[in-house]
Amino acid sequence: MAYAVEMVNIVKRYSETGVLANNKVSLSLPKGKILALAGENGAGKSTLMKILYGLELPDEGSIAVNGEGVKIDSPLVANKLGIGMVHQHLMLIDQFSVSENVTLGQEVTKGLRLSHRQRDAEVTALIERHNFPLKAEERVGELTLGQKQQVEILKMLYRNVELLILDEPTALLAEQEVDALFATLRELVVKGVSIILITHKLREIKVISDYLTIMRGGEVVGSYKTAEIDEEEISRLMVGRTLAFKTDKSSYQGEREEVLRLEGITLNAKGAKRPLLNNVSFSAFRGEVLGFAGVGGNGLGELESLLGGFVKPSEGHVFYNGEDITGYSPRQLRHSGLAYVPSNRLTRGSASQASLAHNLIATKVAQFTKGGLLQRRKITAYSNKVLADYAIKGGSDAAVGSLSGGNIQKLILAREIEHLHDYIILSQPTWGLDVESSLSVYNKMLDLKRRGVALLLISSNLDEVLALSDRVAVFYGGEIVALLEGEALKGATKETLGAYMLGLKGGGVSGT
Ligand SMILES: Nc1ncnc2c1ncn2[C@@H]1O[C@H](COP(=O)(O)OP(=O)(O)OP(=O)(O)O)[C@@H](O)[C@H]1O
Ligand SMILES: [Mg+2]
Q1: Is the shortest distance between the CB of 42 and ligand 1 below 6 Å?
Q2: Which ligand is nearest to the Cα of residue 352, counting in written order?
Q3: In the predicted model, is pLDDT for residue 510 greater than 50?
Q4: All domains of the chain, ordered by start, with CATH?
Q5: What span, in angstroms and rounded, lies between the C-alpha atoms of 96 and 92?
Q6: Is 432's C-beta closer than 6 angstroms to any atom of ligand 1?
Q7: For ligand 1, what atom is nearest to the CA of residue 406?
Q8: Residue 196, pLDDT score
Q9: What is the mean pLDDT of the chain?
Q10: Would the pLDDT of 512 be above 50?
Q11: Is the shortest distance between the CB of 46 and ligand 1 below 6 Å?
Q12: Least confident of 113-117, 310-314, 437-441
């Protein structure tokens, strides 16, 4: 069989932390096929792919591309071998346009200087061929995270890669967007491109991959033909046992009390015809999960920014416990009780150079200071407790930058939940988390609910939204087009939500 790539007995130990991230890992992918790489948080998946892309050097092991032994010691070498990678955390330049990002670096290697117009035209053609909802001239900073993921993919398509590595590309996409991405991947495969896809989602593994390799604790648990293994078996191999999750929606016993209210919130965009948010009103109550659903680009990103204090509304008001907090800065909001798990965890969520301990106490430094000095021992004790509580793999003194993607997410969740007063915004709370960690987050959310916290859940995972929410607001075109609760919500399926999200149904806003 002709292999696009073969990695044999790869060993990688990170010298700073001593972590053995890959322990004699082998993996192979026949040409023109799709391999899913799965496994719990911290299993070593990203590390293995960084080695294949020349971002990390292995301590031992060998790599062959198209049957020939190679030494990949930089991404440039990887590119020359036809390997491209879309990272778990996006690496785009916000100030540049879509087409500038897509073509970045290519002017040089292609040995030609493209004019703005040629470049935009080329990228527009590529966008149209793959049906992405993007414009070549748009500034990347204005895009939703889902769209940014698409720009990363375009970047690779523009480079005519032969082996495409995607590290959790679907984590922030709505189901319809995932389907569109998979259609693109299938087209690439037909053209002979080989693909390695990291994902935690069992459905995706079954739907898109030909082969599956599962990792745990830095080692390969097994490699399979996807058609020959069922979802239950996959899940058991990933976590070592089967897991179940039961929701209990009616658990808060106290008064129904409003915590947060948005009244007629409109957010105008410079130069755009329609507002990004249009006359949005809703209330969030104690002991309730208010879920939000919407396809990227329909206002949820703006809603999140607004609730977090990163943008101010053009019209309308926000009230917290009856007090007008419209236009408060992120800092002021935090002082008044906001806890916030942002979807953009690297820029808004954490300081990557700082230690885990310092990230954990960032919002409560005063509690750990005496006579102007930080109380080291107290900090370490506190952070060790939280790290254990949330099963975060990493020591108190380690830098956040040395954590795996899922463990960074757990760290932010831990910090925010520990900071919590009476309402919390959770945007994509299980982004990048493995099945077990996701379930533990759901259980934490239900605990908070029982304690009378108001939870606002923004998520592209509709199963999650339906399982946890007491009410669901669906956004389309910057407006709430449906607010489902009670019987209407009980009878709702993903398809029901999907129809509202695509604007096929709408205007049926009822209730509070
Ligand atoms: N730069 C680094 N320095 C030190 N340790 C690291 C570094 N990057 C990763 N690690 C450690 O190596 C292990 C494997 O991490 P890796 O990022 O490969 O996991 P992963 O399988 O991609 O997990 P996730 O699903 O959470 O993204 C983890 O214990 C992690 O903390
Ligand atoms: Mg990873």
Answers
A1: yes
A2: 1
A3: no
A4: 1-82+161-242 (3.40.50.300), 95-159 (no CATH), 259-337+422-512 (3.40.50.300), 347-420 (no CATH)
A5: 8
A6: yes
A7: 26
A8: 97
A9: 88
A10: no
A11: yes
A12: 113-117
